[in-house]
Amino acid sequence: MITTKKIENSVHADKDFERANYExxxxxxYLPKVSVTGYKTxxxxxxxxxxxxxxxxxxxxxxxEIKDFPRFEYVNVPVNINCNEFExxxxxxxxxxxxxxxxxxxxxxxxxxxxxxxxSFTDFEQSILEFKKEKVYKNGKIExxxxxxxxxxxxxxxxxxxxxxxxxxxxPFFEECRSLYLHFRQRTLEKTNKVTFxxxxxxxxxxKVSCEQYLLYFAQFLRDLGINATSNLKxxxxxxxxxxxxxxxxxxxxxxREALAVYLNLPSSxxxxxxxxxxxxxxxxIENLQYSQRMKEREIRTSSNELRLAQTVIEHQDKIIxxxxxxxEQQNKVIEKITSKSIxxxxxxxxxxxxxxxxxxxxxxxxxLIKHFGLHLNPATVLKTMGKKILGKEDxxxxxxxxxxxxx
Length: 408
Fold this sequence. Notes:
Blueprint: E1 2-6, E2 12-13, E3 17-26, E4 29-30, E5 35-41, E6 47-51, H1 55-62, E7 72-78, E8 86-93, E9 101-110, H2 121-134, E10 141-146, E11 151-160, H3 166-192, E12 197-201, H4 208-216, H5 218-224, E13 229-236, E14 239-246, H6 252-265, H7 277-338, H8 341-359, H9 367-373, H10 379-391
Helix pairs in contact: 2-3, 4-7
């Protein structure tokens, strides 16, 4: 059962028209990846549009019966029918018919950015056009869109829907679309004589040789599976192009595609080998590739350790350089302070004051001593004699005042 709940803050309304976004629940499960829009006018009742590009959500919608849907304008959901070069989805909209017949369109939207087939979409288009000329598609109509904006083809059909789920009702049409796609594809391959499966790889330079050898063994791997094919490797624009050509029939391409997907995952998957010669060959190839990978990983770890050691040495040297820079900076500050103008001026002023002070000791005989004591002394000589006496460098016959005994 499908239920919807309006998101109030998404409402856009005017006088005659209302548009709102809705939440969707299918069998009680909330599906956030489905866009649900409701429209209502004065003339028409509320109708919904359902759109999703999520395969799970699309499957949930297709699991419902048409009576479980509210009144809707269209349902657009993806469908997987295993055609790798196209995105496939259906566009289903009801028709007002008492016979319960409705229109359903199956879209094949070309993924040109990821196109890996040996033929182009233009080649594919030509095969469809030739098919339309040769026979009338009585079950519906086929349209092609190949322009700058659209690169796709569609198959449209009107079908009657009963009381089963949409998926069950649409399944015969899905299978019909798949059959037509395979028919167009085989016609294209036969017409262009390009029955080669091609894939591109970008291997690390150190592992390129080992990976290429592993790819070349794929042809032997196919022969062990009963598929006869030849393989080829070439480098182009920095990439490795690997091509496989079946020698039996065109249908083998699908088997080759599936086998390659399995083969590329074998080195990383646990495998139980039997004692057959084919299993021993495969095991040897896988072990060779794994050994090359382990050696490369060891080289990377060794290089990383050496790099970390070099970084440690550099960091230690940087610390020493910073310490030396700090010492040099301190020395420069000391030198700057000593040689600064203010220090030089202070030293000059101190020298002048000292000279002025010493001049007081260079006067002749002291008038004060002569007047009051009748002594004729030279103060400078007295101080000089006292200094020598204290230091023990004067003769013992000198008096404390610096006079000979005879003069006393």
